[in-house]
Amino acid sequence: MNVATESSGGGEGLLEAPLIIEYAFNRTTGPVIGAFVTGLRERRVLGIRSADGRVVCPPVEYDPQTGAPLEEMVEVGTAGTVTSWSWVSQVRDGQPLQTPHALALIQLDGADTSMLHVIDADGPEAVSTGARVRIRWAEEPTGAITDIACFELDGGAS
Prior knowledge:
This protein is mainly beta. The protein contains one helix and ten strands, in the order ββαββββββββ. Strand 7 and strand 8 (115-120) form a beta hairpin.
């Protein structure tokens, strides 16, 4: 944290103090997220059935409408439909792909909600709402969301 004080010279009177913010704890994944990431490691995608019968994917521990705990895991497809998207033309450090790509909401077959992920595509003209996509799995699964390396276009619209 830098705090400037009144000063006539460059750098004179500049107070400086280090500020480190960290959260030194670990959280277990629990039964729902644990099952989801274990499924990804096995190249399967799991959602969870909500109280009204809809399948939420990625799964959540509590029903979005009622707040009741959820337990019934449901396998969904590894292909789906783009419901919304935007193009990332300037890639920054830490993004899943190091080339321009689409950031999209994707509703997997068998799910009633969409998940946010990236689509590896040649350009924005290749992507459209309603386009079909499929998972490109990571070469070495680790039991994390990054086991889905990205989605790729599957040719055709739904």
